[in-house]
Amino acid sequence: GQQVMQIPQYQHVQEGEDFTTYCNSSTTLSNIQWYKQRPGGHPVFLIQLVKSGEVKKQKRLTFQFGEAKKNSSLHITATQTTDVGTYFCAGNAGKSTFGDGTTLTVKP
Amino acid sequence: GAGVSQSPSNKVTEKGKDVELRCDPISGHTALYWYRQSLGQGLEFLIYFQGNSAPDKSGLPSDRFSAERTGGSVSTLTIQRTQQEDSAVYLCASSPGVGNGYFGPGTRLTVT
Question: Rounded to an integer, what distance in angstroms lies between the CA atom of residue A97 and that of residue B17?
Fold first, then answer.
């Protein structure tokens, strides 16, 4: 069945450093979604990417969807302490499959 | 409200008892997912409803787990003869399309 691999599992950065998490799907996706889950909270939808090679930005966050629609990345520029949490991707190919998430901690 | 709601927010039950968890999706959303999340872990897919299609039950861990979605809206996840390993946060998500979109706040289940 469809598998979505997400790396790294954990990332510790100094405030102001950049952060990137990557998702790779075993199958071609119709779209991919990204979520953020704060400690103790539930996943909150960030964005959906649909087109091959699509790049979307939300302030310091940049989301990319690969040309083959099998991989995606989330990049945060100049991390802040408010960025802490776990970032999940969810690949959709008839059904949504989540990656295991990347937990980001930011040292002030 | 406009979001996905779940009830109860917390449930403590004794091992061997049955529990029912409820999800009220956003009105008009055809897709509804159930996941569970253990402390510090990722999201474990349980079941997926899409419109009037037969649900995808491939994630249910055992036959003690079942779910229904009545009238294409409210969904109930039932766990029979609960075990301690069933303790987790159970999350529901709904969407107008295939993806999840919107998560509810979850039900924290503790089996003692």
Answer: 30
